[in-house]
DNA sequence: CCCTTTTCACCTAGGTGGTAAGAT
DNA sequence: ATCTTACCACCTAGGTGAAAAGGG
């Protein structure tokens, strides 16, 4: 599924006439697997099947699962001129996450219940024909620590569910109050 | 609305590594306005409001309406490498036609009841910085006379309606028989 | 009368969380 | 227990011809 909230950046300082590729990848924050604290999922007696989530912290549940080398997501507008990238906020809303190790849709594969750090890379498309030699100096990586998250297969915190229902247009069917709240 | 059937081409002979822009435009076939032969639209008594169209020819109805300079439709994948364009059929299915002279969606503006010839242009993106000087030799235009058509605001021939209902997935709701027919 | 415009039910295509069943 | 999967009703977004209304 799509990552939510969407990673968005405003870019400055590119050469307006040069081509750039924009991409993202995800690196493990640590070598741990996490789990919910016990007893914090309370089944509400009626209607049955409803859960209330309170947990705001995670417990370490052991060592991380093994992972294959991480995939990369190219922004679908790549390559494009610096002027194009800079003239408005760049949004990675098409980026999709999966826990399916056999995924063949090119989605980003993550382990559920593991912590990840999104990374943003800008690659300058070097027009010189021996450009491979300059690969090292032709890209720059940006890491925003505030974008770290724990991957899950289901929401673990009711406030996150409500945030997304309130702010994602595709979840409008579940709104029962003003999205401004 | 979208042009139907869609203009599609298979391309050979490009430089796989070079960039090309693909585009289409529409030129008047003649300086005439057309109309339907009288009496060929038969109202079927019941159910009311149904028409049966038989007309397979057009009558000249006078001189063409004035037209502003024609717009151009760039294939949305432009620019792309020759290898990309050649590896599969290129489809102009996003191309849209309108009769609204004030259109600000960038659609192709045509006069209804006039005849048009679609044209297909391939533009080589010249990497030389004085490329403007070579503009004349850097493009090639292809005209397929069998793609000529009369623009309309409503179907004038029941067999065209049926053809489209049978072959356009968005008209599936009007099918009452096998699309193979 | 011929043609154009507007509206609408009905599609395609795909992104939501809920729910119940399954897995461990 | 906790976590995962599969399915579903309900959305967004947009492409259809039919039908009725409008225009000259």
UniProtKB/TrEMBL annotation, chains A, B:
Per the database record, which ranges form the T-box domain?
A: 1-176
Its Gene Ontology biological processes?
anatomical structure morphogenesis; cell fate specification; positive regulation of DNA-templated transcription
The terms under GO molecular function for this entry are: DNA-binding transcription factor activity, RNA polymerase II-specific; RNA polymerase II cis-regulatory region sequence-specific DNA binding
Q: Name one GO cellular component term.
A: chromatin
Subcellular location(s) per record:
Nucleus
| The encoding gene | Tbx1
Its recorded name reads TBX1 factor
* Pfam families in the record: T-box
State whether keyword Transmembrane applies: no
Keywords (alphabetical) are: Developmental protein, DNA-binding, Nucleus, Transcription, Transcription regulation
Species this chain originates from = Himantopus himantopus (Black-winged stilt)
Q: Which SUPFAM superfamilies match?
A: p53-like transcription factors
């Amino acid at each position: 599924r799509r990552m939510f909230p969407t990673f968005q950046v405003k870019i400055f300082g590119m050469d307006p006439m040069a081509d750039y590729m924009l991409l993202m990848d995800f690196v493990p924050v640590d070598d741990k697997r996490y789990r919910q604290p016990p007893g914090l999922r309370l089944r509400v007696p009626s209607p049955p099947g409803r859960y209330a989530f309170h947990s705001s912290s995670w417990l370490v549940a052991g060592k991380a699962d093994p992972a294959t080398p991480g995939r990369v997501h190219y922004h679908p507008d790549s390559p494009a001129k610096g002027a194009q990238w800079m003239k408005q906020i760049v949004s990675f809303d098409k980026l999709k996450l999966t826990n399916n190790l056999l995924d063949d849709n090119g989605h980003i594969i993550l382990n559920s219940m593991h912590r990840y750090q999104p990374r943003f890379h800008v690659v300058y498309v070097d027009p010189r024909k021996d450009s491979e030699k300059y690969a090292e100096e032709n890209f720059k990586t940006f890491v925003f620590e505030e974008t770290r998250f724990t991957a899950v297969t289901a929401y673990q915190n009711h406030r996150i569910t409500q945030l997304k229902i309130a702010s994602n247009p595709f979840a409008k069917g579940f709104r029962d109050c003003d999205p401004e709240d």
